[in-house]
Design a protein that fits this description.
With 402 residues, this protein is mainly alpha-helical. The protein is built from 15 helices and 3 strands.
């Protein structure tokens, strides 16, 4: 059961919040143990479905999490009590959905729950990696440092993701417009030209006959084609949501020639960054590997890192495991081996992460620079074929008339 309470501390400071307890008596006992003089205690009733806040399309963005982590770290470092720091951070948050999440976290922490445990109740907002870092900070007494690490990490991840998304907007827009315009031409323009060509008779050029055949097929079967595309998209989404589909997609990202290099560098950077941050946060190496395997974002790397965690538990080294897999480059194997031998694995992993981030940025810039001219060439060829298919018979008709 959930209870809303208000009370005062022995020094007269007012306190209020939301807490969970099996019964009203247990809630009263717990608040008395905290030394509160209870002035109000009420059971939190469930709202009707219609009156509930609907957060279906709301989410917490990366920059919201960055701001939350950095503000909380600053306040905690300034010796502000955790509860007060959380409340102050909540007041600075603009996202109403995130405000609700932080309110629940504050209530749980105020009820005696550890911060990491309170955050773990919202897995759709706080990842396993985030929770593990906070837990490591609680165990080591360096919660402020862990939160600062998380803010820096989220900021770096957000910048890389934004760069990739912004790089793909222009090519996707141009390609989409070409498909839309081409479809309109096939459905509405070409059939009218076809009627004109038939009136004059004569043999049409091969490109024109192909264009007319494609246009006729689309015009006649457009509804069936539309439904077929919808069904294929639904099936593709369903397959991609299954474990087998996710494994297939993750494998393709590391196999396809165009994206293989970028994907490998991106996952290696994420592996090094996460593992370095967790080790610096004080997590044992086995647990750090397990958390990294969950957040690396690719099932191929996840299985390798899970294997590495098991082997390290048995007394083997990380480098001896990753050296067996081509997904890890010889450079990263050698660097990890050096880090293990020197006892500076966290700093070496951070250097690896920086190196591969630089490589990813360069690769993305090169790919974007290549996509634009390649797209122009493809679109130029498509427009050229379309125009030629229409103009050739018109030229032939004009020649016959003259």
């Amino acid at each position: 059961m959930q209870f809303t309470y208000k009370g005062r501390t022995p020094s007269g400071q007012p306190q209020s919040g939301l807490m969970e307890a099996p019964s009203r008596e247990e809630a009263i006992n717990f608040l008395h143990q905290k030394g509160l003089v209870i002035t109000y205690l009420s059971t939190e009733k469930s709202k009707p479905l219609i009156s509930k806040d609907i957060h279906l399309f709301q989410h917490v963005k990366s920059d919201d999490l960055v701001a939350f982590s950095r503000q909380l770290a600053s306040l905690f470092g300034a010796q502000v009590p955790l509860i007060e720091a959380l409340r102050a951070t909540r007041e600075q948050t603009v996202n109403s959905y995130f405000k609700t999440i932080i309110f629940n976290v504050v209530s749980n922490v105020d009820g005696g729950m550890a911060l990491s445990e309170a955050l773990s109740k919202h897995p759709n907002v706080f990842s396993e990696f985030y929770i593990s870092m906070v837990r490591a900070g609680e165990f080591s007494g360096n919660l402020q440092e862990s939160l600062e690490f998380m803010a820096d990490y989220l900021q770096r991840s957000y910048e890389v993701a934004s760069k990739v998304k912004s790089s793909m907007i222009y090519p996707a827009f141009v390609l989409g417009m070409f498909v839309i315009i081409g479809t309109v031409m096939m459905v509405f323009v070409v059939p009218k030209l076809t009627a004109i060509f038939k009136q004059f008779g004569g043999k049409l050029p091969l490109p024109t006959r192909i264009l007319i055949a494609v246009s006729g097929f689309i015009s006649h079967w457009y509804l069936e084609l539309f439904l077929a595309i919808i069904v294929l998209v639904i099936l593709a989404i369903y397959y991609a949501s299954t474990e087998r589909g996710k494994r297939f997609l993750d494998t393709m990202l590391l196999t396809l020639p165009v994206v293989k290099g970028i994907s490998q560098k991106m996952y290696l950077s994420r592996f090094a960054d996460n593992l370095s941050t967790l080790i610096k946060g004080g997590l044992p190496i086995v647990q750090a590997l397990q958390v990294t395997s969950d957040v690396v974002g690719n099932r191929v790397y996840k299985s390798i890192l899970a294997e590495a965690a098991e082997e390290v538990r048995k007394g083997n080294s990380i480098s001896s495991v990753i050296s067996k897999h081509a997904e890890f480059t010889p450079l990263i194997v050698q660097m990890v081996k050096t880090g293990e031998e020197t006892g500076k694995l966290d700093s070496i992993l951070l250097n690896i992460s920086d190196f591969y981030k630089y490589e990813v940025n360069n690769s993305i810039d090169g790919l974007v620079a290549l996509i634009e001219p390649a797209l122009i060439v493809v679109l130029g060829l498509g427009v050229g074929v379309l125009v030629a298919s229409i103009l050739l018979p018109i030229y032939s008709l004009v020649s016959n008339i003259s």
